[in-house]
Write a structure and sequence with these properties.
The protein is of the alpha/beta class. Helices cover 36% and strands 16% of the residues.
Amino acid sequence: MISKASKRVKFDCHPIFSKWAKPNIYGSGKLFEFIKDSSKLQHRSTGPALLTYNPSYFREVCMRMDKVVQPKNLTYKRHIIDMPDGGKVGVDEISNDEELPKSDYPSLLYCTGGADHSYTARSKVRANWFLEAGYPSVFIVNRRCCGRVQQYSPQITVPYGKYNDLPEIVDYLVDIMPERKWILIGSCFGAQNVLDYFSQSSSNRCEVLGGIVDSFQFNGKMFLDGHYTSRVPFFQNSRKLILNVFVDAALNHAVNKTVYDQVSELVDRSKFKNINLTDKSAVKLVNEELICKMCPDAPFSTQEEYYAMTSPYYDENHKNFLSIQKPLVLVYAQDDPFSSFDLEMIEILKENPNLCLWLYPGGGHIIFTERLIPYSCYLKDVYLENAELLVRKQWEL
């Protein structure tokens, strides 16, 4: 997605020429100053570049390793949350009886990547990072816009559900556990939801300390353009996966005839018969026939209007990230083949002092592998260090 003309950050150690990849940290406010002054990770070597630089090769390997190391002793408790549109969302509360939680630590609300849910190996591994560190519980959101919607969020009465259910989910959790504090984390599509949530005024509440996201699509315009222009195999495969999720959830997962008929009134199903999701024309069809018409925040007149609303940044007239009033750490790999990056992003983010960017030269999309044997992900330490900082400095941020 990065054009040849795009400016790129120069790192002390680039993964093509070096075995190690180190982050550069950017920001302009207190959060940035606290991290710069106290972080033990900002100059730490992170791992062999070959494991991260070409994630299209190593994604399957890393997913298999997640399955090997996933914890077996997690306890699940399902919360079914009623939404204002009549639908329901399933949120799983995960704990570990073998770990002793610290009394002053908050709970985590985790929004997964597009291909994950609360029972995938990656979700279990990441939840266990925090449980082992003393956090009392991790709540994982199973989005309604998901091909597994019936299994993990059992009822959906409006196609897709809202673009983002996090405001209602946070309200629910705060109501039933008023004594707890919260940190929101998100990856990929889940990161988009977290960024969107923090851009809303309802997020500015004392129970929410802040957030951490990785592998996010910051620039909506570049992301939309990439759907039509990218030739990166990993991006093309991911695009196919996302399109399939939208089509599957929208057209096939109506739980009753009434909803099925509602979809039929909005969308010409015949256009999607035998659709080739690898073709660029499918992008336009899904955007204009499904997303723009069926998202409850719709109708959108154009696909550009949709991405301008749902992205942290689209252009000079659409800067949703400026509304973020809570401390938010953003972790990003420059070689991410699926999430657009450009040097201008650094200066744009500095416009909001509540944001701090950890920019790695290597890491791929969500992977951030440190080593395969024994398998580890350096994102773990970055998440834990920044979560601890949000707790320790909560009265100063």
